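Annotated sample (chain length 89).
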Amino acid sequence: MASIKNLKKDINYLFGEVIDEVNYKQLLKPDVDNDKADAIIDEAVTAYEDFYNKISAGRKAENKKAYFKNLDEEINQSVKSLLDKIEAL
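Output written by the structure step:
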């Protein structure tokens, strides 16, 4: 299991990169729908906050190793979903 500290760093990095990618897409492609782009950013921020809360809740889990492994997979799926939405812009 990765440490909680490293998991938090990963969340910061991944969701920061998603937001940066949306901003780059808006700058490089002027025909991007800004409302959809803003919705993706809002979704990324909400997911970021939710995962931080889940990390805090995981400290009380019975099987921490399994909990954080599932959380890591959930984070990766969420980021992949957001990147797919960015590609569709």
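Annotation: The two ends are 35 Å apart (CA to CA).
Annotation: The chain has one domain: 4-87.
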